[in-house]
Structure formats: structure tokens, C-alpha cells
Write a structure and sequence with these properties.
Blueprint (H helix, E strand, L loop, with lengths): L1 E7 L1 E4 L4 E9 L5 E8 L6 E7 L4 E3 L7 E6 L4 E6 L8 E9 L6 E4 L3 E6 L1
């Protein structure tokens, strides 16, 4: 099993920055991706960004240029640096780990951390 523990977030003013962290523990395979999804009130969960175990990032179009994802494999931790935050970025941010060695691909989720951007 894999456990994901998120930290960071909170209340941020528009235009400000925030950094989220997610530490993984448990049985983590070598080939995986870690990333972030978010869910705004009344909306579906959407992809923010993910990064492969090889360090290749992918971003949702609306996050490009404002958000930066990185990971420290030794610490089994993924980070999301969020800049120029907007009220529309408000939501619960969920950490995700995909086990790419399993078929079908197994998804693990953190409990989520709230990010509120005030105008």
C-alpha cells in the first residue's frame, strides 16, 4: 500500500504564491508518476500537473507558466509551487501517485489540502 501526506496550502491573496508538498510512503514502485489534481466547489476534479519518476513534467494548459512541479525521489516527495494565484485556483488539491507498473494502473490519493485564494 501507498500513503500520501499533503502539506501546504491555506489562505492566499490573489497574486500571491503557495507551495504544496506531498510525501509518499509504503510500497512504491520505481516506475511511477506523482502529481496534483484539484477540485473546486461544484466542479469535477481536474489535473493540475504530474511528473514522472524520470523527472518529466506535464501541466494542464491553464497552469502553464504559473505552476511548477518538482520531485525529490530520495525523499519520495513531490512539490507544487504555485505563483500568481487567482481566485479561480481555489479548491482542494489532491496528491496523486500512479503505479505505472501495474495493469490496470493503480491510483493512490492523498486526503487533499485546501487552497483558498482571496481577491
Amino acid at each position: 500500500q501507498v500513503q500520501l501526506a499533503e502539506s501546504g496550502g491555506g489562505l492566499v491573496q490573489a497574486g500571491g504564491s503557495a507551495r504544496l508538498s506531498c510525501a509518499a510512503s509504503g510500497s512504491i514502485v520505481g516506475l511511477n508518476s506523482m502529481g496534483w489534481y484539484r477540485q473546486a466547489p461544484g466542479k469535477q476534479r481536474e489535473l493540475v500537473a504530474f511528473i514522472t519518476s524520470g523527472g518529466i513534467p506535464t501541466y494542464a494548459d491553464s497552469m502553464k507558466g504559473r505552476f511548477a512541479i518538482s520531485r525529490d525521489n530520495a525523499k519520495k516527495t513531490v512539490y507544487l509551487q504555485m505563483n500568481s494565484l487567482k481566485p479561480d485556483d481555489t479548491g482542494v488539491y489532491y496528491c496523486n501517485l500512479k503505479d505505472l507498473q501495474s495493469l490496470p494502473i493503480k491510483n493512490y490519493w492523498g486526503q487533499g489540502t485546501q487552497v483558498t485564494v482571496s481577491s
